[in-house]
Design brief:
Two copies of one chain form a homodimer. Chain A has 81 residues and is an alpha+beta fold. Chain A has helices spanning 16-27, 52-67, and strands at 2-9, 33-46, 73-80. The relative contact order of chain A is 0.34. The A-B interface holds A 6-8, 18, 21, 24-25, 28, 30-47, 49-50, 54-55, 58, 61-62, 66-67 and B 6-8, 18, 21, 24-25, 28, 30-47, 49-50, 54-55, 58, 61-62, 66-67. β2 (33-46) of chain A pairs antiparallel with β2 (33-46) of chain B, so a sheet runs across the interface.
Chain lengths: 81, 81
């Protein structure tokens, strides 16, 4: 089973990296961009011994306790077989 | 319209950052992990002037030409209203 975890800055937190990418893209001539925000993305392969519920709980725990800084970041995740 | 671009290392490329996260998680007692790979994630808000086809083409061009290093990385993206 594979879990995909997406960690991004909260909407209220300034993202200077995203702003830099956006202004670079504008200067390079790409049009129609309103905003760019960058985040992190983790692909976690779980071994077959876990049920879907266990996997879900384990991945959420990992995302919440380790991969995300709860002060400035939020996460979402999905599971795929 | 919002585009979500996911950039990850090609499967054949070693991901030392992911390996480090995996071994840290194992030492911290999280079980059942077979592998961890880290990538980047971009959330691009496009202004309303673009049709879905134009947005798709523009985002693909940005992802291919700027956000991804084609030698070691691959990308996928999705569009949402």
């Amino acid at each position: 089973m594979t879990a995909y975890v997406y960690v991004s800055l909260k909407k209220t937190v300034l993202d200077p990296q995203g702003k830099t990418i956006q202004s670079a893209l504008n200067k390079m001539g790409y049009k129609g961009l309103e905003s760019v925000r960058q985040g992190k993305y983790f692909e976690i392969t779980l071994d077959g011994g876990l049920t879907r519920e266990q996997a879900q709980a384990e991945v959420e725990r990992i995302a919440r306790e380790v991969l995300t800084n709860p002060v400035i970041e939020e996460f979402r995740f999905s599971l795929a077989d």
